[in-house]
Amino acid sequence: MPIALATTLLTILRGTTTDAYGDEQDTNTPIATGIPASLTEQTRRVTTRDDPTPRIVRYAVARVGAGVDITDQDRVKDERTGAVYIVDAVSSMANPAAAPDLRLDLRRTT
User: Fold this and answer.
1) Structure pTM?
2) Least buried of 50, 61, 76, 99, by fewest C-beta within 10 Å?
3) How many CB atoms lie under 10 A from the CB of residue 77?
4) Letter string b/e over residues 8-30, b meaning 16 or more CB atoms within 10 A of that residue's CB
């Protein structure tokens, strides 16, 4: 059970296959369903030295319980909205007193 207040339930999708042309494709094999998660989407205004024109970048962050089996490059589906995200990074803070939530840096695909 996550420490953060859950706002949705997630399904973890994992696995790949090869299509007729030899290209790798993601499969929609559910590894786990009904995982409580705190999911937030945010925007950030970004500029670079090379291009000072501001761009709006959208990103999402989710928090799930410490025991959830999830890795980089898995996909998660928001069961409430149907949106699918790629997991770019999984991280956690060290805490000797309690098992902290896992933080998932996500990129929306649908």
Assistant:
1) 0.81
2) 50
3) 20
4) bebbbbbeeeeeeeeeeebeeee
